[in-house]
Amino acid sequence: MTRPPVEPVGDDRASRSSPASGKAPGPDALRHVRWLGGGSGAGKSTTARRLAARYGLRRYGTDESMADHVRRCPPQRCPALHAFAAMDRDERWVHRGPEVMLETFGWFRGEAFDLLVDDLLALPADRPVLVEGLRVLPDLVAPLLSGARQAVWLLPTPRFRRAAFTSRGGLWDIAGRTSDPPRALANLLERDRLFTDRLRGDVARLELGSVEVDVGLGEDELEERVAAALGLPDAATG
Fold first, then answer.
1. How confident is the model at residue 27 (pLDDT cuts 50, 70, 90)?
2. Contact status, residue 93 vs residue 87, Cβ threshold 8 Å
3. Under a CB-based contact definition with an 8 Å cutoff, are residues 189 and 75 in contact?
4. Among 22, 16, 29, 231, which residue's Cα sits nearest to residue 120?
5. DSSP readout, the chain?
6. pLDDT per residue over 133-149, tens digit each?
7. For residues 103 and 107, what is the distance between their CA atoms, to the nearest angstrom?
8. Among candidates 53, 66, 27, 185, which has minimal Cα distance to 130?
9. Nearest-5° angle of CA 221, CA 208, CA 60?
10. Beta bridge partners of 59
11. pLDDT confidence bin for 202, thresholds 50/70/90
């Protein structure tokens, strides 16, 4: 079956990477911020919560600001996000192929990243901030870094991601609410594999930090590796 053409939504990442306030923060403005990105199911949220508790960091979960940012970002600035919000579950996960799902998913395109930066600039700078989530995209974060050890990306292998979602629901729950759960799940898993591959390439190109996450890597070891990659004080470095 021939797929319908993808409607272009524009590649305006550069304009979205500047805060909505009109200020363009340099690296020094967010020197106290560390970034934890990565593929779906890699353990970003769990690791961020553990690190926040251990080091007294202020955690900013990018997933938690999604609804607010969609509301604050008008359709002309965030067309992909608003198009996605208007779809039913089958339109999102069953009737479109993984490549189309990847290219038209607003968060993967960096839409509303400017609002995320505005939120960070508005936070008190009394303690370090750890930003985590799939919206932490290498191309958008790199200009905001004052040092390479301010950011790291978790890159899950396909078998790790499937094992993670099997144990805790995740994509299975999303797929189960469609008319064709097996197809929806296959689409989602392939979309997320493509996203992780894109992250891997972007992180390598920009010479940023990453941690490969595979089956057998426990939460304690992952926490230590991320802490070391971010240069946190008493992290193991060996």
1. low
2. no
3. no
4. 29
5. -PPPPPPP----HHHHTS-TTS----GGGGTTEEEEEESTTSSHHHHHHHHHHHHTPEEEEGGGGHHHHHHHS-TTT-HHHHHHHHS-HHHHHTSS-HHHHHHH-HHHHTTTHHHHHHHHHHS--SS-EEEESTT--HHHHGGG-SSGGGEEEEEE-HHHHHHHHHHH-THHHHHTTSS-HHHHHHHHHHHHHHHHHHHHHHHHHHT-EEEEE-TT--HHHHHHHHHHHTT-TT----
6. 999 999 999 999 998 89
7. 10
8. 53
9. 65
10. 130
11. very high
The tokens of 136 are what? 């932490």
Q: Tokens representing 157?
A: 């292998």
Cα separation, 33 vs 54, in Å, equals 16
- Range of lowest pLDDT (6-15, 84-93, 112-121): 6-15
Q: What's the gap between Cα 234 and its chain centre?
A: 26
38 confidence band (pLDDT: 50, 70, 90): very high
pLDDT over 70, % of the chain: 84
Output the six-digit token pair for 39: 């593929």
Distance CA 229, CA 213 (A): 14
**Residues in Cβ contact with 99 at an 8 Å cutoff, skipping those fewer than 6 apart:** 191, 194
Structure tokens at 196: 């992780």
